Amino acid sequence: MSNPLQIVDISLVDAATAEELLNAATSQGFLFVEGHDFEQSEVDHLFELSRQFFELPSEYKQQYSRSNSNHGYVDYGGENLDPTTQKLGDPKEGLNFSGLDFLTGLTEEDIPQWFKDVPERHELVVSTIKKMYQLSIKILRILAIGLKIEDTNETKGSEWFASKYDPSKASGSTFRLLHYPGQKSLNPEAVIRAGAHTDYGSMTLLFQKEHQEGLEIYSPVSKGWEAVPYVSPNTAKYPGKAPPIVVNIGDQLSYWSAGLLRSTIHRVKFPKAVQETGQDRLSIVFFSHPNDDALLTPFPSPLTKDIKGRGANKDTVAITAKQHLDKRLAATYK
Ligand SMILES: O=C(O)CCC(=O)C(=O)O
Ligand SMILES: [Fe+2]
């Protein structure tokens, strides 16, 4: 499968990396990142854990149904990512880990006992949550350099995003395991697995598996739907490491940058080959959000100061990260 997206190596935090990252974030709004520290074995275990969890009886999973704070199990059809077009919810199930403390990797509310029954299961979830948080902060620091965010009295420009990510303060960040069951039907009406949407946070990090493709972006470059392929790990460069991770710019970065960065529309669809094999899809996703009280007003930068009428610059009243998330979630989980 061809790859319309850039693969950016973030192992070096410097001006060249920042330039490359910014270019990808302002063009497609979707990219791959390599030079992260996720091991292949770790990601394999996570997918295995996810598969085993979703195989548990429905009654068991439903004991942990999604709470008002967006934590817990979401059953088939429980979420509709494209409520203006789709009547039915998405044909998928998910497990949300929300109310995250990034110092401990723990959640405020209970997670299914199944994860705690075996210490390795819980440890893997906890370490993944901490790593995802750290990776998103690293990417945000590099982006801040590329965006030439200016120093203020309170913060250094490169720390502008990170300063809104106090690890022990409440945020909308959510770690999710997602499962899209296979479907043999070739009914063209039933090919959407997750409706078209933009993500609500600052950025989303995602692992998918080979032969389980289906993620598509509405490319701002080609003005058409394009597949986000599975990209194999570069084992010569990074032995033992997991494949490049998908990075998706979300609404909040679009607001903060007055629309310079793109919160690109995407969806999950059954590609023909996957529909024919009846293959399931599993994805491992981290939705990175700043602290609840972070204002979504543009950062100070020569790159954005003259942009008017896009992103938050067009609004007269600034909203907080939590107000934005609550609004989006209310539409999704009607
Ligand atoms: O499962 C995927 O590949 C993407 C899901 C997604 O876009 C989302 O949950 O926001
Ligand atoms: Fe999404």
From TrEMBL:
<keyword id="KW-0479">Metal-binding</keyword>
<comment type="similarity">
    <text>Belongs to the iron/ascorbate-dependent oxidoreductase family.</text>
</comment>
<dbReference type="InterPro" id="IPR005123">
    <property type="entry name" value="Oxoglu/Fe-dep_dioxygenase_dom"/>
</dbReference>
<feature type="domain" description="Fe2OG dioxygenase">
    <location>
        <begin position="171"/>
        <end position="290"/>
    </location>
</feature>
<keyword id="KW-0560">Oxidoreductase</keyword>
<dbReference type="GO" id="GO:0016491">
    <property type="term" value="F:oxidoreductase activity"/>
</dbReference>
<dbReference type="Pfam" id="PF03171">
    <property type="entry name" value="2OG-FeII_Oxy"/>
</dbReference>
<dbReference type="InterPro" id="IPR050231">
    <property type="entry name" value="Iron_ascorbate_oxido_reductase"/>
</dbReference>
<keyword id="KW-0408">Iron</keyword>
<dbReference type="Pfam" id="PF14226">
    <property type="entry name" value="DIOX_N"/>
</dbReference>
<dbReference type="GO" id="GO:0046872">
    <property type="term" value="F:metal ion binding"/>
</dbReference>
<dbReference type="InterPro" id="IPR026992">
    <property type="entry name" value="DIOX_N"/>
</dbReference>
<protein>
    <submittedName>
        <fullName>Clavaminate synthase-like protein</fullName>
    </submittedName>
</protein>
<dbReference type="GO" id="GO:0044283">
    <property type="term" value="P:small molecule biosynthetic process"/>
</dbReference>
<dbReference type="InterPro" id="IPR044861">
    <property type="entry name" value="IPNS-like_FE2OG_OXY"/>
</dbReference>
<dbReference type="InterPro" id="IPR027443">
    <property type="entry name" value="IPNS-like_sf"/>
</dbReference>
